[in-house]
Amino acid sequence: MKCLVSGATGFIGRQLCQQLVARGDTLIALSHGGGELSGGISTHAVDLAETSIPDEYLVGVDVVYHLAGVAHQHAEPAAYQQLNHQATESIAQQAAAAGVRCFIFLSSVKAMGPASSTAARAESECTIPDDPYGASKWSAECALREQFAGGDMSVVIVRPALVYGDQAKGNLRLLARAVRWGLPRPPAQGARSMLALPDLVALLCLLGDRQPPGVSTWIACEHDGYSTRTVYDLLRGAAGKGSGSDWLPLWGWRMLARVLDWLSRQSRGSSYEKLFGTELYSNQALQTATGWAPQYKLKQVLFSDASVGGKQI
Description:
Rossmann fold, single chain, 10 helices
């Protein structure tokens, strides 16, 4: 097949590109600044916030994997809408006009808004997103569902939970660094759904092959969630350390979280919620529809790579 990947130099994009090339697909890789991926894979420089994809890049393309987007926490609200929503809608329209058979959009569980309970959520259990990132992803999803529900092009919206793997930036890497600096053992509170990068890449390839008709929206995550304490224990184990001491009381963690809120310019309570909140999702709909099932656990990735990263924790 011939595939186009936007966001090719990102955490997920570079792994997807390498997998597509390894299995023999023809690849058109796009990134904001161009450059080259490992293995000599070249990328074309296209600023999707400012311009559309050149038509010649879409000629003969079977599957578009749209991964590019704004994810960091301090962008202007308009920047999220411009790239995460408007550019997604525009690229999907271009793809349909070019005869692309399948458009796969990497959304996020953040598009589902805050959880109203601690139970694992299914795809339809959504609330209004309370941050610009989640709102922009939700807007893009709605536009795709409205415009392509009756079209010939297969449209697949994938909502991954926190993705972990090697060579990534994010709160998991910050936690790994804090563990090396002697962070005390966190309290046993909260749990979050996660997903290994190799499992997500395998899923994206599977969906590109299957090309389900209409517009499909699926959550991608592991079966079980991880608490910050569980991740902490696994990180210490991967670093060859024993169990840490839980000498810091809960009120101390609340104070530490407030400091993190101030340093990162987040609203009060954000850091504590990320560390000790519960955010669980169900992958049952995806498994039933496709037969896909996650093959990795965080422990396997940590002990095989001795490095970890992630996003959206």
